[in-house]
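pls design
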């Protein structure tokens, strides 16, 4: 089945940043087979876009879906205080709650134009099984791609870590379970809808041994590696005291700065460390709303981009950014970059690129993130005839500056996930109702 979309402003996010203001786009099966301007080719179905802006489906590079269950808590807390307040609540997570949370977060993301979601799950209370499987099931049902991580914590409070001892695991159990999930779920090739990443949580909740063994396992299995890094000044002080160096220097010592790694936040980096990210090919998940919500600071995205660093956007967990709206992060990334570096620090088009091509690069994916022949047909269609874009001289910049928006239509691998601004395969009211039942179990 082939479909040609005509009469839209196509933002391809290809290498040259090509846009077709009155363009067409041809989709055959799960693949984009052509894009351009001028007369559109024939196809089985013809769709008039009516001047909509078309972007690649957005790619979320950092999240904790389970945190939808514990929103709006520890409202004035810094990261460490916030974590200490929330760990006991998170200890109640099980597969049923994880499934409801994942459906909620993934639905929100899809409605914001997001077609690929990385989720960093690192809370595995002893005896609870099926947590990652529950997320994967939710993603398959809604139709979005997921990169789910088998995260981990093994440095409990009694050994100088932040989490309670009851929430940390044994190193060998973590590694065995990671390998089990990779064998069962990871799809290596182009068009993968489910992938597994290896993601020990952070320098203050994971031992050096688990960091090193996680990296060795990921490299043996060909899986991407992820962790939190340099999020707050408290983390910086913690690492200096415990390890005698900055968080980035610590990761570098462990062999973690490399092209198969991306790190969330990276707010507090020295100029040398920014250059080191560029030299080593280490990627960054920029999560501006979460960083503002926790008062952590603003990541030096302009400087990272100028050093050739792969940078994507993340909504981060739903307890430190109460929205899972990735388009809101597109606008937020522009605003915070300008707040830090002035009005030329980031353009609207660069902000879109972070959320699409940048995110795909961060996840090591060449099959998504741009609208080019041969790529997966992950496509977000944004209407331009609403109140908020009336009078916009440039619909692409207008879209970013007036965001966030509910996507009108989202295709993932050529299949509709959102149509007419509504989920195709689920009802969002039902998802919210089921989530309320689960979230009640976490209210204390
Ligand atoms: Zn996070």
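designed seq:
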């Amino acid at each position: 089945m082939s479909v040609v979309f005509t009469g839209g402003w196509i933002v391809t996010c290809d290498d040259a940043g090509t846009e077709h203001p009155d363009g067409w786009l041809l989709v055959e099966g799960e693949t984009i087979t052509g894009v351009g301007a001028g007369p559109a080719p024939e196809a089985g179905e013809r769709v008039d876009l009516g001047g909509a802006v078309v972007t690649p489906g957005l790619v979320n590079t950092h999240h904790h879906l389970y945190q939808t269950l514990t929103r709006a808590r520890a409202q004035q807390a810094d990261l460490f205080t916030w974590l200490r307040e929330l760990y006991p609540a998170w200890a109640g997570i099980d597969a049923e709650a994880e499934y409801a949370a994942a459906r909620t977060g993934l639905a929100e993301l899809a409605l914001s134009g997001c077609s690929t979601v990385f989720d960093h799950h690192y809370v595995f209370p002893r005896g609870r099984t099926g947590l990652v499987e529950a997320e994967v099931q939710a993603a398959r049902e809604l139709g979005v791609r997921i990169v789910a991580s088998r995260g981990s914590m093994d440095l409990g409070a009694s050994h100088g870590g932040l989490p309670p001892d009851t929430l940390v695991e044994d190193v060998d159990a973590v590694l065995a379970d990671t390998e089990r999930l990779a064998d069962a779920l990871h799809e290596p090739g182009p068009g993968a809808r489910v992938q597994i990443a290896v993601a020990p949580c952070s320098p203050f909740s994971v031992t050096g041994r688990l960091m090193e063994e996680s990296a060795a396992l990921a490299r043996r299995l060909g899986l991407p590696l992820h962790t939190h890094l340099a999020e707050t000044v408290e983390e910086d002080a913690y690492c200096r005291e415990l390890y005698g160096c900055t968080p980035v220097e610590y990761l570098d010592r462990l062999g973690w700065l490399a092209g198969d790694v991306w790190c969330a936040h990276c707010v507090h980096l020295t100029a040398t460390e920014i250059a080191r990210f560029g030299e080593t090919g280490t990627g960054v998940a920029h999560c501006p709303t979460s960083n503002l919500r926790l008062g952590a600071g603003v990541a030096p995205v302009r400087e990272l981009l100028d050093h050739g660093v792969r940078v994507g956007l993340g909504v981060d967990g739903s307890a430190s950014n109460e929205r899972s709206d990735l388009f809101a992060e597109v606008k937020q990334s522009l605003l915070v970059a300008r707040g830090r570096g002035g009005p030329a620090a980031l353009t609207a088009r660069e902000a879109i690129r972070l959320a699409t091509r940048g995110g795909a690069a961060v996840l090591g994916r060449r099959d998504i993130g741009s609208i080019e022949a041969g790529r997966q047909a992950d496509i977000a269609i944004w209407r331009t005839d609403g109140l908020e874009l009336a009078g916009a001289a440039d619909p692409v910049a207008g879209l970013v500056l007036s965001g966030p928006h509910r996507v009108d239509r989202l295709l993932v691998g050529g299949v509709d996930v959102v149509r007419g601004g509504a989920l195709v395969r689920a009802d969002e009211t039902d998802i919210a109702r089921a989530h309320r039942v689960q979230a009640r179990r976490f209210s204390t």
